[in-house]
Every structure is written in C-alpha cells, then in structure tokens.
Specification:
By secondary structure, the chain is α+β, with helices and mostly antiparallel strands. It has 2 domains: 96 residues, no CATH class; 45 residues. It has 2 helices and 8 strands, in the order αββββαββββ.
C-alpha cells in the first residue's frame, strides 16, 4: 500500500514538474515607476488646496492635486506649465491567463490599480519597458533596478499593480 501511494505521489510530482519549472522560470516581481508628462495652460489655481486645473492643446481639461508644491507660488492663471506625474508600481510577469485574472481581481480601489499588459519592447540598458494594455493603450514603466528587467522579453504578459499615491509636480514653462 505504501509503495502504491509513493508511486502515485511520484507520478503527480513528475506530471507537475513542467508547470513548476515554467512558473519558476518567470522573472521575479520587481519595482518600477511610470512617469507621465504633459504641457498646458493654467485655467485656475487653488493654492490653499494645492490644486491646478490645466487645459491641453486640444482644449481638454484636467485638474491635478499637486504633491510637490515647490513651484506652485509661481503658477498663475493663463501661464503655460509642465505637469509631471510619477506613480510607483510592482510589475509581475505572468502567463497570459494569470495576467487577465490578476488584473480582474478587485483589490481595494483606493490602494491598488492592476493593469494586465503585454511587453512590446524592453531597453535592457535603461530598464524601460513599453507595455500595451488590453484596451490598446501603450505606456512605459521604468524598472527601479535595470538588472531585474534582464529576463523580460517582448511578448511576455505582465500585471502592473500601481500604488494609489500619484506624485504630481507643476513647473512654469521657460
């Protein structure tokens, strides 16, 4: 009886070995950040709330809560500005089905946003990856340690878990 049970367990381990080695072959999750830059014209400034509303070249309007207020005193209605937003993220390489499932999970909405994406390109020297989400949007992630991106290749599926906090700075155009 013990021999039969050992045989069944050995068969199960042998059958699962390819799955375990595939999972083990995936790069470890790593930290990175996404930086977005935009230019526009200031529609309004609320210095007390550290808030700026900006119009872009196409007339689109967006309001920003400024977390880096060093230049806020220089910003006036009608002035042209640069907005810089940085959001920290954890990037996990997954199999395609896992990526879709992980992004679909409902995490606490105020702490984490998950995005499933496909790696379009990787600059292994700088650690910058171009990712394409399911809706076709392309965005870039800078790996905090470029060495962690070394085994990431185009075509891989990833899940990007963005931190809730977005650091936003505003600066006048020169």
């Amino acid at each position: 009886m013990k021999v039969k049970a050992l045989g069944i367990m050995a068969s199960a381990l042998i059958a699962a070995a390819p799955l375990a080695s595939f999972g083990a072959g995936l790069p470890a999750p790593f930290q990175g950040s996404s930086t977005l830059r935009a230019d526009g014209t200031v529609k309004s400034v609320d210095a007390a709330k550290h808030s700026v509303t900006v119009l872009d070249a196409q007339g689109g309007e967006a309001s920003f809560n400024i977390t880096d207020a060093r230049n806020l005193a220089q910003i006036r209605q009608g002035s042209k500005v640069h907005i810089r937003m940085v959001r920290e993220a954890t990037i996990s390489v997954t199999r395609g089905v896992e990526a879709q499932g992980a992004a679909a999970q409902t995490a606490q909405a105020d702490t984490v946003q998950r995005v499933a994406a496909r790696v379009e390109s990787v600059d292994h020297g700088s650690g910058v990856m171009a990712l394409k989400s399911a809706n076709g949007a392309v965005f870039h992630i800078q790996g905090r340690e470029p060495a962690m991106v070394a085994n990431v290749t185009p075509g891989m599926q990833v899940v990007v878990a963005f931190a809730a906090q977005v650091n936003v700075a505003v600066a006048p155009m020169q």
